[in-house]
Amino acid sequence: IADCPYLAIVDIDIDKKLSEEDRNLIRNELLEKIYQSELNVALVKTGHGGLHIYCNMDPLILFAGNSMVKKITTVKYDVDIFTCVDYNESKRCAVLPDSRIKDFEYDAVNKRQQPKQPNQIFKYEKLGKAEIKFDKKKDLDLISQVFEVLGFDIELIKYHEQPEQDVQASQDVNMTKQKANILINDFNNLIIHNYAAKSEKETTLFKLFSSINGMKAIAEVDQQWINEVYNKISQIHGLTIKARSNFDRTRIKLAERSCTPHYIEKLVRLTNEEYYNSECLPTKIKEDAKSQSNSKSNNDDDIIDINSDTFLFKQFDNLEKKFSI
């Protein structure tokens, strides 16, 4: 499901301890609400009598920790969401309609998964008339509409944009437009992932876009300059396929989020040390000297080095785990 950017599956897991008659009654009550509302969604009865509702996730963003995790619990059923989040990508799978499955359990003696009841097979059955077309996810109604019809609170699952800047961006930006231009000109060799960079020498849309937005605090930097930076990045070869396909959507979602632009400086230093030493370092020395002459701390022990590699990468990693496309 990580390959389906706009697809969401609302998984309603009806309590298996209930009788088959009770499970059928609960499922039919949910289906009646959907049919009466005339929602354009695809429906699948799961192997244990639950319900899969195929719908459109866009434009909502789901926390990585909220996907495939029970977020709504009632006496009758639990609800979780299957959707495109790169975190744990290889495990992001959903059983398709018309599939036949067996229940498995771990055999501690043989140290392997074995069927609970080898002869018992469960079938996932498609319901209703709506077709499940994985190449046309946007044709389905939105997940927010599904939640409204079923009386679920959408706030329990969606990602909330934080308009306020985080701790790094709240500090004064000790960077000039000249230096920002020097940094931006060295993006050609950068590898940019949609989510979860492989090393500190690579980055993600979240980290890079947040830092670019942080450059708005630099004197003489305007929106036109920011737009030119985004245009330049969109054309570099280092964008992965998923990063390129999610580029515009992620930029819109992160429009109000900004973090320190010094993260970009660290990227340049790590990916092209020769360029950094020859082009960036002389400018940095001048800026640091000017900054030290303008202000001094009464207690150096109270200073948190927001420009340190350890602080920057740890903070960005923590923030990105709460955000996903």
What features would you describe in this structure?
The protein is of the alpha+beta class and 325 residues long. The protein has ten helices and twelve strands. The chain has two domains: 7-156; 177-320, no CATH class. The chain has helices spanning 20-37, 143-150, 177-184, 205-214, 223-234, 241-245, 247-253, 262-271, 273-294, 309-320, and strands at residues 7-14, 42-45, 51-56, 72-73, 77-83, 100-101, 104-107, 112-115, 122-123, 125-127, 192-193, 203-204. The strands form four sheets. A six-stranded antiparallel beta sheet has the order 4-5-1-3-2-10. Helix 8 runs antiparallel to helix 9. The longest helix has 22 residues, at 273-294.
Give average pLDDT, whole number.
76
User: What proportion of the residues form beta strands (DSSP E)?
Assistant: 5-15%
The Rg value, from CA coordinates, equals 25 Å
Shape: elongated
Note the main sheet. 6 strands, antiparallel
Q: Number of domains in the coordinates? A: 2
**Strand count:** 12
Assign the structural class, choosing from mainly alpha, mainly beta, alpha/beta, alpha+beta, or little secondary structure: alpha+beta
Element pattern in H and E: EHEEEEEEEEEHHEEHHHHHHH
Strand neighbour order, sheet with most strands:
4-5-1-3-2-10
Rounded to the nearest angstrom, the distance between the terminal CA atoms is: 12 Å
- As a percent range, the share of helical residues equals 25-40%
Number of helices: 10
